[in-house]
Specification:
The chain is α/β, with parallel strands linked by helices and 266 residues long. It contains seven helices and 13 strands. The structure holds zinc ion (ZN).
Length: 266
Amino acid sequence: MTKVYFQNHGFMHCDLRWLVNATNYASRRNLSPPTTWYDLPTLTLVIDHPEGKILFDTSCPRDWESRWAGSGLDDYFPYDNVSEEEYLDSSLKRLGLEPSDFRMVVLSHLHFDHAGNLRLFQGSGARLLCHRAEKEGALAIPGDYQGAFVKKDYQDGFTIDTLEGEPEIAKGVKLLDLPGHTWGTMGVMLDLPNSGTIIYPSDAIYMKASYGPPPVGSPIVWNSLEWLNSVEKVRKLAERHNATVVFSHDSELVRSGLRLAPAFYD
Ligand SMILES: [Zn+2]
């Protein structure tokens, strides 16, 4: 029987305005409104499936401060509220898992907070996968960093296979094509016998405020129209399947509603 573990790897911080447009604009009477220093969780999914274990996303690395130095990400998005047991390698160990236990590692996209631990799977035997458009776009950025991409996360010494469309990578585990946040952002839809359908759209939908309705965009969007279409696609799928939608960076959800590893959905 399939078990799905949502792992929270602690919290990054950022100005909430990176995630949700239209918060706290200045006005004539308030030229410098305070903003929110938001603590955003960083999640991965362990899909313990009879056909083989799948990891969806890899979160941020332990050496974020040196690794991101020069990109500005260490300053704008510090990964500074994380305990020893929350780092990806520790949290896998808590589930009794090592990188070599995985059949595949799927990257929803190649941003620094999703592809940051790909290194751990080098030589593990796990097949690394992302969307074709994502790999093409991310490899083509000029220089070592651009936006939320840190090229060494996914470039040096890796073979990342690509896919397109919406393949069912294991029975009841279907990838969703949700472009907009980046070229090839993917989500995953899980059909589970007891928990029903769960949709994890990754950064196509950061949080409840992004989902709406109406959807509220963010400055970190590659193509706004595609992003909007992706959000509405998730909404339609969720209605059709009576699904639970789990947002990728919603601290309230992580602190109050989401079942976190070692508990699981099945
Ligand atoms: Zn993210």
